Prior knowledge:
28 strands, alpha/beta, six-stranded mixed beta barrel, Rossmann fold, formate dehydrogenase (NAD+) activity, Dimethylsulfoxide Reductase, domain 2, Asp_de-COase-like_dom_sf, seven-stranded mixed sheet, 4 domains, iron, single chain, 23 helices, N-terminal domain of TfIIb, binds iron/sulfur cluster
Amino acid sequence: xxxxxxxxxxxxxxxxxxxxxxxxxxxxxxxxxxxxxxxxxxxxxxxxxxxxxxxxxxxxxxxxxxxxxxxxxxxxxxxxxxxxxxxxxxxxxxxxxxxxxxxxxxxxxxxxxxxxxxxxxxxxxxxxxxxxxxxxxxxxxxxxxxxxxxxxxxxxxxxxxxxxxxxxxxxxxxxxxxxxxxxxxxxxxxxxxxxxxxxxxxxxxxxxxxxxxxxxxxxxxxxxxxxxxxxxxxxxxxxxxxxxxxxxxxxxxxxxxxxxxxxxxxxxxxxxxxxxxxxxxxxxxxxxxxxxxxxxxxxxxxxxxxxxxxxxxxxxxxxxxxxxxxxxxxxxxxxxxxxxxxxxxxxxxxxxxxxxxxxxxxxxxxxxxxxxxxxxxxxxxxxxxxxxxxxxxxxxxxxxxxxxxxxxxxxxxxxxxxxxxxxxxxxxxxxxxxxxxxxxxxxxxxxxxxxxxxxxxxxxxxxxxxxxxxxxxxxxxxxxxxxxxxxxxxxxxxxxxxxxxxxxxxxxxxxxxxxxxxxxxxxxxxxxxxxxxxxxxxxxxxxxxxxxxxxxxxxxxxxxxxxxxxxxxxxxxxxxxxxxxxxxxxxxxxxxxxxxxxxxxxxxxxxxxxxxxxxxxxxxxxxxxxxxxxxxxxxxxxxxxxxxxxxxxxxxxxxxxxxxxxxxxxxxxxxxxx
Length: 674
Ligand code: SF4
């Protein structure tokens, strides 16, 4: 049996694991003891990471729609058709009638080439991916406050923290190996503060649990900062030497008294004070957050408020401090780094910056569009309105993961041409004109970049099934068919090009990525990589405070409950892989809506009762599950399940800065099903 060292395909922790291969088949996975995050451990998804790889549902041949039916085609046929239809649409309607959605499950090399496909071949900046639905506010908010949207410290730095504030993160279920580090720090004496409306396992393990009303994050964060200022616990030296804008913030947060914060958030003022003292008094404190913070129509404000907290307390640039935006997918960080975003090239070089554009035009040997493109949710609106006509989707399933599912269905159905690359049939491939079968993570070479900015090698352990190909080959083939030079002999050659155009990846090469990888920025071949950002300075000079205020939260008497959505330990995203992993699906085979027993009593509902959940956007029928994990007035649905898709209910209300939809707070009502 051969053991191939690679990286887990699920969450952003980026655990190192071995795939066990016997006679060309993957028969198991085990953790890498030497890997800096895994340290000999994996969560249940990691142990089962390769179980879906040989599943009989795998897409094995290219498919093309003929006479309303999907039939088998050759690679040459489907790629010729795709290139021809994209050219025709570009000639008839202009380049911005085209778009590419890349995949945070794809490698850096695939994301780079697909973003290049959009910009250099199709001539549009309409390129985006699932980061729009998870950490676009981190890219915008931390980018503004600190000069980089990346996690400031490596995961293991949490072991040195004296206080850890975790908010909007169901860490034990979504980032189990980060949770393991946090709980290890707690066992060494760190105070664990968890802020979450739900009583998650993390909240139950916390020393202090604050349960705010949904959508009130700016209030409690400003309230904690106000108390820290009052108690004289700010780091004045750090503020004076390394930041700007503190006095305006100080003038603002004075309004967020404990009493006022209790009125807005429901957090008892005494608990808020305990949290402020614990965080403010710690010599090294860290903030960890995830989508419970970002997936709001004020997601960027939420991130800016957290950045204020770490800046005011001088918790930046040292071991044990920092701010940790936990990325959901294993390569969502890398997809952002590769410029799979409508406003930036690789390395976050702005498309609107003429100097950056000139550099990329010289590197790619072609003119590039200057205006930022459409974001993912804007693409759906443009498609429904007929402005967007041709789309390439790589490994995403917007039919389940995007807000307002009915609208996504109308949008994708109204396209003139839709190409979808994936490893399994999905609700989105069902709408495609061509389906491109591609290799899974276990069947290709490349790199992933984890949530801690660690660029790591992904290695081929088995052959793709049937005629499936690594998408790096598919993207290069399409580039050539659309007139762009793309003669890459291997993914390694693509990485060589990435490092030549991406300053923060300048020193990254396959030879240098051992078992631990390298953390960016790594600007040159002799640079050791950067585990802790902002040690002596910020890339923007001084750290910037922002005086952010709590937004007004509209109440809707027709929809008196608030729905929040999330994930389960046993499933990942739209369930494409985990629902085909028997042991994971056995643990959580179906969706349910979590309702507090007090709300359930008022509705006349028990555990197991079928209910109809309705919002202004849509409705769905689902089984009720009674639990005190959700507070009175709030209900919760995991979004993995196509048969009860939570995003049937969510709306497209966007954060004005980052354009993330407010998925985490939807007014709903519930009644017993007929
Ligand atoms: Fe994979 Fe994340 Fe689990 Fe690690 S913590 S094994 S990366 S799912």
